[in-house]
Structures are given as structure tokens and as C-alpha cells.
Specification:
Elements: E1 2-8, E2 12-14, E3 21-39, E4 46-67, E5 82-103, E6 108-125, H1 128-132, E7 137-153
Antiparallel strand pairs: 1-3, 2-3, 3-4, 4-5, 5-6, 6-7
């Protein structure tokens, strides 16, 4: 089947990237993938299954920073918030998971699923403000573990 999902990973504020900056990170992604599902008990009311999928993702990564208390930007001696990175990239996506569907009748079911999604290695380009600090890009792997509750219809 076809699976489309959107995940917004909530903002994370940290000084881990630099003790001189209060940083805010935000990542959101849309995934489109072909999914194969193997059902252990296809004719039963309760149907456990395994899931695997391959596809693509489009992810947006935003990194903003403000000088920590007592510090300012060298360029203009101010302490405003600056966007260091705001880029969207696409790449390979893969997923695997397990789930359980409970059929209420021939075509309607409730289900639960635990799924791991790997979104490949992506290199995000920095803004001019990020490059001014000597950072040209940020490279990394993205992944997510999702717990899903669903209402489904079988055609």
C-alpha cells in the first residue's frame, strides 16, 4: 500500500551546540512510502502483523540562535535572534514495525502500531548568518519511532 505521514518533532532549546549561544532547533518531515504488510492471522478478528516500507522524505530543519546572557554578536554588538539554518532537503526513507488490527466487521478495524522510520543522511545548507560563523552545512541522520492508533477501512 501507500503510506503518507507528517511529523513535527517539537522545538528543542539547548546550549549543547555552543555554550555561548541559546539555540532553538526544529525539524519537520513528510514521508511517502510504499508499504508491505504481512498479517499472521489474515482470517481472524484480531490480526497481528509485520510492516516494512521504502520511499522518500522531505525534511525541513531550522536552527536559530541568540547569544547567551552577557554576550553579543561580534558583527554589530547586538543580541538579536538569528537564523543559522533554514533548509529543506529530500532523501531515502525506510520503515519497519509491528502492529495489531482488531476488525469490528468485514471492512472496519481499529489498530495500534509501533514503527521505526529511518530518514537517511541529509546535508542541510546554512544561511548567510550561519556561514558568517564558519558553518557551511549540517549533516546527519534522521529517524523517528512512532506509536500509532488508527481507525481503518478495508476495501
Amino acid at each position: 500500500g501507500l503510506d503518507v505521514n507528517y511529523t513535527k518533532f517539537g522545538e528543542k532549546t539547548s546550549t549543547a551546540l555552543s555554550p555561548l549561544l541559546d539555540s532553538t532547533l526544529n525539524l519537520q518531515t513528510t514521508v511517502i512510502m510504499a508499504v508491505a504488510k504481512w498479517t499472521a492471522l489474515p482470517d481472524q478478528k484480531v490480526r497481528p502483523y509485520l510492516l516494512g516500507g521504502l520511499g522518500i522524505h522531505s525534511s525541513t530543519f531550522k536552527y536559530e540562535a541568540t547569544p547567551a546572557a552577557g554576550f553579543v554578536w561580534d558583527s554589530n554588538r547586538t543580541a538579536e535572534n538569528r537564523t543559522m539554518l533554514d533548509d529543506t532537503k529530500s532523501g531515502f526513507a525506510a520503515a519497519f514495525g509491528i502492529g495489531l488490527d482488531v476488525y469490528l466487521n468485514q471492512s472496519v478495524f481499529l489498530g495500534g502500531e509501533a514503527r521505526f522510520q529511518y530518514l537517511g543522511t541529509v546535508t542541510y545548507d546554512t544561511t548567510s548568518q550561519g556561514r558568517a560563523l564558519g558553518v557551511s552545512s549540517v549533516k546527519g541522520d534522521n529517524s523517528a519511532t512512532d506509536l500509532l492508533v488508527k481507525l481503518g477501512f478495508k476495501f
